[in-house]
Amino acid sequence: MIRILVDPAPIDIAAEMALAEAGPDDGGAGAVATFTGLVRTDDGVDTLELEHYPGATEAALRSLAEQATTRWALHAATIVHRVGPMRAGERIVFVAAAAAHRAAALEACAYLIDRLKTDAPFWKREVRGGVATWVEARHGDEAAAARWSTE
Amino acid sequence: MDLLYFAWVRETVGRSQERVMPPDHVATVADLLDWLAADSEAHRTAFADRARLRAAVDQQFVPLDASLAGAREVAIFPPVTGG
Question: Which chain B residues have a beta carbon less than 8 Å from that of A124?
Fold first, then answer.
Protein backbone atom coordinates (compact mmCIF):
# COMPACT_ATOMS: atom_id res chain seq x y z
CA MET A 1 0.00 0.00 0.00
CA ILE A 2 1.35 3.38 -0.99
CA ARG A 3 -0.15 6.50 0.54
CA ILE A 4 0.90 9.97 -0.68
CA LEU A 5 -0.72 13.13 0.66
CA VAL A 6 0.33 16.76 0.08
CA ASP A 7 -2.13 18.94 1.94
CA PRO A 8 -2.45 22.20 3.90
CA ALA A 9 -4.35 20.49 6.75
CA PRO A 10 -2.52 19.51 9.97
CA ILE A 11 -1.11 15.97 9.86
CA ASP A 12 -3.21 13.42 11.78
CA ILE A 13 -0.58 11.02 13.14
CA ALA A 14 -3.05 8.59 14.69
CA ALA A 15 -4.98 8.17 11.45
CA GLU A 16 -1.79 7.78 9.40
CA MET A 17 -0.33 5.23 11.84
CA ALA A 18 -3.53 3.20 11.70
CA LEU A 19 -3.37 3.11 7.89
CA ALA A 20 0.33 2.15 7.86
CA GLU A 21 -0.20 -0.60 10.46
CA ALA A 22 -3.25 -1.98 8.64
CA GLY A 23 -1.32 -2.11 5.33
CA PRO A 24 -2.80 -4.09 2.45
CA ASP A 25 -5.42 -6.78 2.96
CA ASP A 26 -2.89 -9.63 3.09
CA GLY A 27 -1.26 -8.30 6.29
CA GLY A 28 2.08 -9.74 7.31
CA ALA A 29 3.90 -6.61 8.47
CA GLY A 30 5.72 -7.09 11.75
CA ALA A 31 7.32 -3.65 12.00
CA VAL A 32 6.41 -0.04 11.28
CA ALA A 33 9.10 2.66 11.40
CA THR A 34 8.10 6.31 11.25
CA PHE A 35 9.69 9.76 11.02
CA THR A 36 8.00 13.03 11.94
CA GLY A 37 9.47 16.40 10.98
CA LEU A 38 8.47 19.46 13.04
CA VAL A 39 8.79 23.21 12.50
CA ARG A 40 11.75 24.10 14.70
CA THR A 41 11.00 26.11 17.82
CA ASP A 42 14.59 27.01 18.71
CA ASP A 43 15.58 29.64 16.14
CA GLY A 44 12.96 32.36 16.29
CA VAL A 45 10.75 31.28 13.39
CA ASP A 46 7.17 32.50 13.81
CA THR A 47 5.72 30.99 10.65
CA LEU A 48 7.02 28.50 8.10
CA GLU A 49 5.51 28.46 4.61
CA LEU A 50 5.85 25.49 2.29
CA GLU A 51 5.51 25.99 -1.45
CA HIS A 52 5.35 23.02 -3.83
CA TYR A 53 4.97 22.08 -7.51
CA PRO A 54 1.48 20.58 -7.73
CA GLY A 55 1.46 17.33 -9.66
CA ALA A 56 5.24 16.99 -9.86
CA THR A 57 5.54 16.85 -6.07
CA GLU A 58 3.03 14.02 -5.71
CA ALA A 59 4.64 12.14 -8.61
CA ALA A 60 8.12 12.46 -7.06
CA LEU A 61 6.87 11.21 -3.68
CA ARG A 62 5.03 8.30 -5.31
CA SER A 63 8.17 7.33 -7.21
CA LEU A 64 10.19 7.33 -3.97
CA ALA A 65 7.58 5.22 -2.20
CA GLU A 66 7.52 2.75 -5.10
CA GLN A 67 11.32 2.47 -5.09
CA ALA A 68 11.34 1.84 -1.33
CA THR A 69 8.53 -0.69 -1.60
CA THR A 70 10.49 -2.67 -4.17
CA ARG A 71 13.85 -2.42 -2.42
CA TRP A 72 12.65 -3.41 1.07
CA ALA A 73 9.52 -5.45 0.19
CA LEU A 74 7.35 -3.03 2.13
CA HIS A 75 3.78 -3.77 3.10
CA ALA A 76 3.05 -0.03 3.35
CA ALA A 77 4.85 3.20 2.51
CA THR A 78 3.34 6.51 3.61
CA ILE A 79 4.52 10.05 2.87
CA VAL A 80 2.37 12.92 4.15
CA HIS A 81 3.73 16.44 3.62
CA ARG A 82 2.05 19.60 4.76
CA VAL A 83 2.09 22.72 2.55
CA GLY A 84 1.11 26.35 3.11
CA PRO A 85 1.67 28.29 6.34
CA MET A 86 2.38 26.53 9.65
CA ARG A 87 3.49 27.50 13.13
CA ALA A 88 6.55 26.57 15.18
CA GLY A 89 6.12 23.12 16.72
CA GLU A 90 3.65 21.87 14.10
CA ARG A 91 4.28 18.79 11.95
CA ILE A 92 5.70 19.36 8.45
CA VAL A 93 6.15 15.78 7.29
CA PHE A 94 5.29 12.24 8.32
CA VAL A 95 6.87 9.14 6.80
CA ALA A 96 6.07 5.52 7.61
CA ALA A 97 7.44 2.22 6.32
CA ALA A 98 5.85 -1.12 7.22
CA ALA A 99 7.83 -4.31 6.61
CA ALA A 100 8.07 -7.89 7.82
CA HIS A 101 10.93 -7.05 10.21
CA ARG A 102 12.44 -3.97 11.87
CA ALA A 103 15.67 -3.67 9.84
CA ALA A 104 13.84 -3.21 6.56
CA ALA A 105 11.29 -0.84 8.10
CA LEU A 106 13.97 1.35 9.72
CA GLU A 107 16.13 1.50 6.60
CA ALA A 108 13.21 2.23 4.31
CA CYS A 109 11.97 5.00 6.60
CA ALA A 110 15.41 6.66 6.58
CA TYR A 111 15.60 6.26 2.80
CA LEU A 112 12.22 7.93 2.28
CA ILE A 113 12.99 11.03 4.34
CA ASP A 114 16.58 11.36 3.06
CA ARG A 115 15.53 11.16 -0.58
CA LEU A 116 12.47 13.36 -0.05
CA LYS A 117 14.82 16.16 1.01
CA THR A 118 16.56 16.23 -2.39
CA ASP A 119 14.09 14.68 -4.84
CA ALA A 120 10.73 16.32 -4.10
CA PRO A 121 9.94 19.89 -5.20
CA PHE A 122 9.16 21.73 -1.96
CA TRP A 123 10.51 25.12 -0.87
CA LYS A 124 10.51 26.52 2.67
CA ARG A 125 10.15 30.19 3.54
CA GLU A 126 10.65 31.29 7.15
CA VAL A 127 9.06 34.36 8.69
CA ARG A 128 10.88 35.87 11.67
CA GLY A 129 9.56 39.08 13.18
CA GLY A 130 7.64 39.86 9.99
CA VAL A 131 10.66 39.30 7.72
CA ALA A 132 10.42 36.41 5.23
CA THR A 133 13.49 34.55 3.92
CA TRP A 134 13.76 31.52 1.65
CA VAL A 135 15.58 28.61 3.28
CA GLU A 136 18.83 27.61 1.53
CA ALA A 137 19.41 23.95 0.66
CA ARG A 138 21.86 22.16 2.96
CA HIS A 139 24.88 20.38 1.49
CA GLY A 140 24.45 17.65 4.12
CA ASP A 141 21.11 16.74 2.58
CA GLU A 142 22.78 15.84 -0.72
CA ALA A 143 25.24 13.56 1.09
CA ALA A 144 22.46 11.93 3.11
CA ALA A 145 20.50 11.17 -0.07
CA ALA A 146 23.59 9.97 -1.96
CA ARG A 147 24.33 7.22 0.56
CA TRP A 148 21.26 5.35 -0.71
CA SER A 149 22.53 5.13 -4.29
CA THR A 150 22.67 1.49 -5.24
CA GLU A 151 25.47 1.76 -7.79
CA MET B 1 5.72 26.05 -24.05
CA ASP B 2 4.52 26.73 -20.51
CA LEU B 3 7.05 28.06 -18.00
CA LEU B 4 6.58 27.74 -14.24
CA TYR B 5 8.61 29.52 -11.54
CA PHE B 6 8.80 28.67 -7.85
CA ALA B 7 10.03 30.21 -4.59
CA TRP B 8 12.39 33.20 -4.98
CA VAL B 9 12.68 32.62 -8.73
CA ARG B 10 8.93 33.25 -8.95
CA GLU B 11 9.20 36.36 -6.80
CA THR B 12 12.16 37.77 -8.74
CA VAL B 13 10.68 37.08 -12.17
CA GLY B 14 7.44 38.61 -10.89
CA ARG B 15 5.06 35.91 -12.07
CA SER B 16 4.39 32.24 -11.40
CA GLN B 17 3.92 31.19 -15.01
CA GLU B 18 4.01 32.35 -18.60
CA ARG B 19 3.61 30.88 -22.08
CA VAL B 20 6.43 31.42 -24.57
CA MET B 21 7.37 30.41 -28.12
CA PRO B 22 11.18 30.24 -28.14
CA PRO B 23 12.98 30.31 -31.52
CA ASP B 24 14.64 27.19 -32.93
CA HIS B 25 18.13 28.03 -31.65
CA VAL B 26 16.86 27.63 -28.06
CA ALA B 27 17.76 23.95 -27.67
CA THR B 28 18.44 23.50 -23.95
CA VAL B 29 17.17 24.80 -20.62
CA ALA B 30 20.27 27.01 -20.38
CA ASP B 31 19.52 28.44 -23.84
CA LEU B 32 16.00 29.19 -22.66
CA LEU B 33 17.31 31.08 -19.63
CA ASP B 34 19.64 33.12 -21.88
CA TRP B 35 16.79 33.88 -24.28
CA LEU B 36 14.42 34.97 -21.50
CA ALA B 37 17.11 37.08 -19.82
CA ALA B 38 17.99 38.94 -23.02
CA ASP B 39 14.87 41.12 -23.03
CA SER B 40 13.88 41.27 -19.38
CA GLU B 41 15.66 42.80 -16.41
CA ALA B 42 13.55 40.69 -14.00
CA HIS B 43 14.46 37.42 -15.74
CA ARG B 44 18.11 38.52 -16.00
CA THR B 45 18.21 39.13 -12.24
CA ALA B 46 16.47 35.86 -11.39
CA PHE B 47 18.75 33.80 -13.65
CA ALA B 48 22.02 35.61 -12.87
CA ASP B 49 23.55 32.83 -10.76
CA ARG B 50 22.97 29.56 -12.62
CA ALA B 51 24.51 27.54 -9.76
CA ARG B 52 21.46 28.48 -7.65
CA LEU B 53 18.95 27.27 -10.25
CA ARG B 54 17.38 23.88 -10.85
CA ALA B 55 14.98 22.83 -13.59
CA ALA B 56 12.32 20.30 -14.49
CA VAL B 57 11.13 19.46 -18.01
CA ASP B 58 7.64 17.99 -18.12
CA GLN B 59 7.85 17.54 -14.33
CA GLN B 60 11.13 15.55 -14.34
CA PHE B 61 14.23 17.07 -12.70
CA VAL B 62 16.92 17.70 -15.33
CA PRO B 63 20.33 19.43 -15.50
CA LEU B 64 20.40 22.89 -17.09
CA ASP B 65 22.08 21.51 -20.23
CA ALA B 66 19.10 19.19 -20.85
CA SER B 67 17.39 19.29 -24.23
CA LEU B 68 14.04 21.02 -24.68
CA ALA B 69 13.04 18.77 -27.59
CA GLY B 70 9.34 18.05 -27.24
CA ALA B 71 9.08 19.93 -23.95
CA ARG B 72 5.62 21.23 -23.07
CA GLU B 73 6.25 22.45 -19.50
CA VAL B 74 9.52 23.80 -18.08
CA ALA B 75 9.90 24.75 -14.42
CA ILE B 76 12.73 26.88 -13.01
CA PHE B 77 13.35 26.95 -9.26
CA PRO B 78 15.96 27.02 -6.47
CA PRO B 79 17.37 23.82 -4.92
CA VAL B 80 14.54 22.09 -3.06
CA THR B 81 14.15 22.37 0.73
CA GLY B 82 11.31 20.07 1.77
CA GLY B 83 11.05 17.66 4.67
Answer: 81-82
